[in-house]
Amino acid sequence: MCDDFSAHNTEKSSEIRWYEAAPDTPRRALRRVIRLRGSPAAAHGKPVLIRRESPSDAAVIRAITDAAFAPAPAPAELPTGQVPTGQITAEAWLVDELRGSPAWLPALSLVATTPGGDVIGHVLCTRAHVGEAPVLALGPLSVRPDRQRHGAGSALVHAVLGAAEALGEPLVALLGDPGYYHRFGFRLSAGYQITPPEPEWHAHFQVRALTACAPSLRGAFTYPDPFNRLP
Question: In this structure, are residues 172 and 124 in contact, taking their beta carbons and an 8 Å threshold?
């Protein structure tokens, strides 16, 4: 059996993307993390395969992330640690920063491909904490614009949650629309006595408890450092 966690998806589903603003999102929260949401469902699904990111995927992941969140193409490279000044999206910058940080978990950086092998999407979970206990933060999640609203985002979320479960991780957290993420098993963190980094996030901060989640796992959630340095 190969090491990659693979999945196939043709379901009708909503796409998922990050966005920079919402009417109920505090400005200071936007500097810390970019919220996740769902968008209208597609009429038809398309075949999607999921595998782990390989070293050769970094450039295409950056391009897909930029294409998903910026209308203009971004330059191919930005030195790690340099805050972008209009050349690259915050989401693409964040992926590069996370990849070079101690929070990076190679087994939980997944790409979606067509049956022919073209990379069309990306998702990752990185090391976060509840108190001192290691947990996971989900995001960013990006899908190439021409393949959005065809199930690739849903397939990526299901795959990364399955991979986290197989690795014995206790839970995954994100900031997003509860009405959308309920379908993936996410619930508001308050029900688990887990507090978000910002008090204003309580209505949208969610966790997905996995099999290894112990009842004693509770406390304040902390994102990996690159999230705190979002431009």
Answer: no
Q: Which residues of 114-150 are buried (b: 16+ CB within 10 A; e: fewer)?
A: eeeeebbbbbbbbbbbbeeeebbbbbbbbbbeebbbb
Rounded to the nearest 10°, the torsion over CA 125, 130, 132, 138 is 10
Helices (H), 82-151: 90-99
Residue type for 29, please?
A
User: What are the tens digits of pLDDT across the range 97-144?
Assistant: 999 999 999 999 999 999 999 999 999 999 999 999 999 999 998 999
Q: Helical H runs in the chain?
A: 27-30, 58-69, 90-99, 152-166, 178-181, 225-228
Alpha-carbon gap, residue 115 to 2, rounded angstroms = 17
Instruction: Pick the closest to residue 48 from 146, 154, 140 (CA basis).
Output: 154
- For residue 3 the two structure tokens come to 């090491």
